[in-house]
Records
---
Amino acid sequence: MSYPDPTYTVGSGEISASYRPSDTAPELLTPSGGRTYYLATTESTRGEFGLYRMDMAPRAGGPATHFHRSISESFFILDGTVRIYDGERWTDATRGDFVHVPQGGLHAFRNDADEPASMLLLFTPGAPREEYFEQVAEAAEWSPEERAEFFIKHDTHWIEHDTH
């Protein structure tokens, strides 16, 4: 394996780094009390990756088993306990634990604990996940056709008859 082809090919460097202070307000607040921070979006990384911090409220639950066809998803636990399903078994991931799910990998995650949990989510390559995060809670109110279109648009493929 080698380095990818260069994408910056002119000049001798530029001032283009971005800084986000730790006290920046979250971009998304959920009804359950969760917070999502858009640390690096596909737009800001030119499609290379998306990085989000998700602070989950106690007993917030999470999505059912699903997979992505075009993006991988990685989890780095910052605090608390996040239950992560790898398609075979659930694991209680805690501070410092890392889980990588390649394209096609079955997975689910949830906070079943009485304490909050916090994690970083990394999607590669970058994908516009912001719209997904902002609208997924409303999907239950949509017609089956609208839901199906939304999830396909956002590369989220649910496993039918999921018992996890």
Note: The chain has a mean pLDDT of 94.
---
Amino acid sequence: MPRRLLFVIILLTGLVILFCSACLQAGDKTEASHPKKAFSDPGSVSALPLTVIHPRQNPFTNEKAALGRLLFYDPILSGDKDVSCASCHHPEFGYAENIDLSIGVGGVGLSSSRYFRHADIVPPTKRNSQSILNTAFNGIDINGDYDPEKAPMFWDLRATSLEDQSLHPIRQFEEMRGTAVEEKEVLNTIISRLGAIPVYRTLFKSVFGSDTSITSTNLAKAIACFERTLIANQSRFDLYMRGQSAALSSSEKEGFTLFMNAGCARCHSGPMFSDFKVHIMGTPDADKRKDIDSGYHNSFAFRTPSLRNLRFTWPYMHSGKITNLEDVLTFYEDLRGKPLKTKYVQEEQLDSLAKQVRIEFKDIPRIVEFLNTLNDAGYDHSIPESVPSKLAVGGNIKLKK
């Protein structure tokens, strides 16, 4: 091979190597400039709608909602006639309660003052009681679209729609059923009880149109219709998002910006500040039950809770193990490198969105200020003076003096 040709080949080879090296370095630089590409979308939030969509199969009427209110507060729906829906979802506590795990059957008192009359007969409920406020909007997306007939319910998404959800506690052993009635018989027993009460016979016939209207389907429809009236959509944040800039202070607006920049709205998104999806977060476990709560399909994933009305609905997380908002935010800050609060989840199992949250300790007070703008105390606090069964309104929730 001529010496000149060999020189040209060597020169060209060197140029190719230099070019490829430069490309790789440029590629590395581009990647280094955007190491958090997944962080590009911070999520979106918005105000709640002013009106509620009702299912086509369960249109709203005032009479139906009034019937649902009575049923919600009537312990006739529980096996031992001592627990109502309001026992764990009381207006004084944002239709939730201030206790880690609810005490249903066999309980006395309300919220954090509630206790078991006889220990070790019935366990507390499996998870922290979620608020019923605004559950009419469950499943809503950033555009305000949702289907009330497919609305996700519970921490593990085991029910869709308020109609579906409303019957679960009645069938659940530790919530409302207790030891008096078998699960397969409990709904028939409740329907029989309601049919034996003249006032309920009259009300069901008036609402649903026949003498045979007292059914489990109509029971669910009435309770769900009432629950869709429990709306709190006039928070200062809602007013701000509807154009009233002065509704938030400068520090609250700063907290809003920090909340968004930290990536919180990737899961706590939309008008309800929830994507209504399940995520593995490594949250602390409940310690009042012998069984292990493994969440959605035994994955230790739980649904994103709403951030609305947190002032009324503490404690937080599915286990109710975190009692204040500062500690909730510290929990997320600690996800970066500190040991998880549960032994059942490993770091590599954590949801990718959880790993992307970047909360700085110094920003927590401002973010808490913002979260408090999501409270709206103007919801319906009214409680019926009596219920048709003539049992104690709300169940056994008053402590004996």
Note: The mean pLDDT is 91.
---
Amino acid sequence: MSWIYIILAGLFEVAGVAGISELNKRISAANVTLMIGGFLVSFVFMSLAMQDLAMGTAYAVWTGIGTVGSAIVGILFYKEPKSFLRLFFIALVLCSVIGLKLIG
């Protein structure tokens, strides 16, 4: 169950980062709620995951999911560049997260 919690924590971190991006465009209650709510729920799931996972593994997976997820959201919704090298390094981060799951 802890791996599900850490995945959810990473996904809600992406929501929080999207909230920051939206706040930079327009300050509104919905954007503030998205940012604060995303990070708050992310921290709750991170805390639940760390009851069973080692701190280093949990944090690395959480930040990896957040990094890859935010980069993908940026490419898909915010017209950020999707060059080969950018996608290659995103894939490396994803492979590292998967590797931590396999060994930990």
Note: The chain has one domain: 2-103.
